[in-house]
Design brief:
Shape: elongated
Helix content: 25-40%
Strand content: 25-35%
CATH topology of the largest domain: GMP Synthetase, Chain A, domain 3
Largest sheet: 3 strands, antiparallel
Number of domains: 2
Radius of gyration: 17 Å
Structural class: alpha+beta
Length: 143
């Protein structure tokens, strides 16, 4: 089992406060966060939703590569983006959906077979599984 760690230090109230997220395990540095960067404009700062998007796009790409390789059709390249939507819902704010878009070069694989493997990757990707209950859409194509 492998654990990964991140730490956030926050100062002040929600609307005017600020903080920074440190990716402890990778020592990749600090990322500033504010409520405004989360709910309005990034303005050079990140948000929990952007970090989820990064995790999801990376995890999905690795899962898809693994499934394609196991089927004997290793990809030449995979480009995945994840768009995490955040906004008002119920009594507060929530992630309202995630849109995955993937384009890949996979020699020897039909568009139909690629679509099936891409869908399977979405279903079993560990980040997708962790986000169960969130609507996740997929736009997958060769090209």
């Amino acid at each position: 089992m492998t654990d990964r760690n991140a730490t956030t230090q926050w100062t002040g109230d929600l609307e005017s406060g600020s903080g920074s997220v440190t990716l402890d395990s990778s020592n990749a540095g600090q990322f500033p966060v504010t409520w405004a960067s989360r709910a309005e404009s990034p303005d050079g700062r990140t948000s929990p939703e952007e970090l989820i998007a990064a995790a999801h796009s990376a995890c999905y790409s690795m899962q898809l590569s693994g499934l394609l390789s196991a089927a004997g059709t290793p990809p030449r390249s995979i480009d995945t983006s994840a768009e995490v939507s955040f906004g008002p819902r119920g009594d507060g704010f929530a992630i309202t959906g995630i849109a995955l878009t993937v384009r890949a070069e996979v020699p020897g694989l039909s568009a139909e077979d690629f679509a099936a493997v891409a869908q399977k990757a979405k279903e079993v990707c560990p980040v997708s599984v962790a986000l169960a209950g969130t609507t996740i859409t997929l736009d997958a194509a060769l090209g």
